[in-house]
Amino acid sequence: MSLAVVSFSGGLDSTVALAIAVDSYDEVVALSADYGQRHTVELDTAARIAARYGVRHHVVDLTGYGALTTSSLTSDEPIPHGPYDEENMASTVVPARNAVFAMIATGLAESLGGGDVILAIHGGDHAVYPDCRPEFLASAAATAELATDGNVTIDAPFIHMSKTDIVKLGATHHAPLGETWSCYEGGRQHCGRCGTCTERKLAFHEAGVPDPTAYADDTLYRHGQQVPA
Amino acid sequence: MSLAVVSFSGGLDSTVALAIAVDSYDEVVALSADYGQRHTVELDTAARIAARYGVRHHVVDLTGYGALTTSSLTSDEPIPHGPYDEENMASTVVPARNAVFAMIATGLAESLGGGDVILAIHGGDHAVYPDCRPEFLASAAATAELATDGNVTIDAPFIHMSKTDIVKLGATHHAPLGETWSCYEGGRQHCGRCGTCTERKLAFHEAGVPDPTAYADDTLYRHGQQVPA
User: Fold this and answer.
1) What is this structure's pTM?
2) Which residues in chain B are contacts of A104 at CB distance < 8 A?
């Protein structure tokens, strides 16, 4: 019996990863983390999408780890606006976050008898987050295998894909893209201006997939410049 | 300024690691984890020893991770008795525990400006715990460096040492060996019969260092056989 533990935020990327895993594995478990992020809407969204797919969903409490480290995602520092790939997004880094998540997911997969851990890291994450790069992933995968006598492997199927590719793939797999949450702000609607919102909007536009998201600001930006309609 | 984050359980090995780190680094932070282990005496001991050295001590709450995984250390399963290196100790494995701890310590070190993470893994741990082996350590160290753009390295100074070597080293560095806690049982005194107690007793004996520990059962065993006095 094949098992996948999907590191699952309820965001667009990990929802597409979950949709594909459900089609590919006998058993799928969705694993979210509460690391003290200011928007619990993310965890509510994750629970709703996991329930839609009928998969087991665990939320691991990592608020203690969040409190130990520094990041504008877990503090009162203002969230930076503007393009996702710029220098100012660096304050949204939770140090070693993917490394911690990957190893906790590895522990869970091992305790369920072994299987694959799926991380929905993608190409656009590389510039800002060191723990989203292919060389990090290869090393983390080796570490997980060594930590479990080869019972658990880590896979990142989107690591060489763009967000646009993931939107296309999600549309093909009928993933509930409209239900996913991307915004770094903690509002009830996507702000449309933070790094992940501008990236999300542009990805739907470039994929040629209708964007079901209601944004507070639906202007389309590319590299900080408004895209002509 | 040099920084060390010592993964610190209040046990013998990590207390010796802390004693050496205090002599070698400008700043030392002790990091313990509460993963739902049944004996909080371990955390109390850690706090007391960290206070004695005047170093900052953080306890990160990982009970959520402990609850996700399976181990006799965090459940009601009986603790196995007998030699530390035997097959029956396998139920004391918390899956991927060192991998998770190492990455959380990495996140903390990174948020403090970068430095070294010290793990007190030793040679005797290799047989039972896959995430205590040299090849695991090398891979985890590479993963930590990649996750932090080279700001954090992981070191395991005892990885090729025996427990006996560590007792000798601790005596040299005047580490408070008598205050440390090893027992896997949750009693008020070292039981003297569980895997870590028998290993501890034998290490003092072989190091020729007087053992300050009060054991409920102070018989000396080697490979399950009583050692003649």
Assistant:
1) 0.86
2) 65, 68, 96, 100
Determine the CATH number of domain A3-175: 3.40.50.620
Which residues on A lie below 8 Å from B143 (Cβ)? 99, 136, 139-140, 142-143
A14 min Cα distance to partner chain B (Å): 20
Average pLDDT over residues A33-47: 81
In this complex, the residue of B63, B136, B152 whose CB is nearest that of residue A146 is B136
Q: Which residue of A has its CA nearest to B68?
A: A108
Nearest to B108 among A69, A103, A142 (CB): A69
Shortest Cα–Cα distance, B220 to chain A (Å) = 32
Residue for token digits 């306890």? B59
Phi (first) and psi of residue A22, to 5 degrees: -60, -35
Domain boundaries, chain A: 3-175
In CATH terms, the fold of domain B3-182 is Rossmann fold (3.40.50)
The secondary structure of chain B, three-state, reads CCEEEEECCCCHHHHHHHHHHHHHCCEEEEEEEECCCCCCHHHHHHHHHHHHHCCEEEEEECHHHHHHCCCCCCCCCCCCECCCCCHHHHHHCCCCHHHHHHHHHHHHHHHCCCEEEECCCCHHHCCCCHHHCHHHHHHHHHHHHHHCCCCEEEECCCCCCCHHHHHHHHHHCCCCHHHCCCCCCCCCCECCCEHHHHHHHHHHHHHCCCCCCCECCCCCEECCEECCC
pLDDT at residue B123, rounded to an integer: 82
Report the SS3 class of residue A224. Answer: coil
> Is residue A141 within 8 angstroms of chain B, CB to CB?
no
What residue type is assigned to position A178 of the chain? G
Q: Which chain B residue has the Cα nearest residue A62?
A: B62
Nearest-CA distance A96 → chain B (Å): 5
Q: How far apart are CA B47 and CA B55, in angstroms?
A: 10
Average pLDDT, 10 consecutive residues per value, chain B (229 residues):
95 96 96 78 91 95 84 46 46 77 96 95 77 92 96 95 96 95 82 90 96 93 79
Better pLDDT: B29 or A183: B29
* ipTM given for this complex: 0.84
Q: Are A43 and A34 in contact (CB under 8 A)?
A: yes
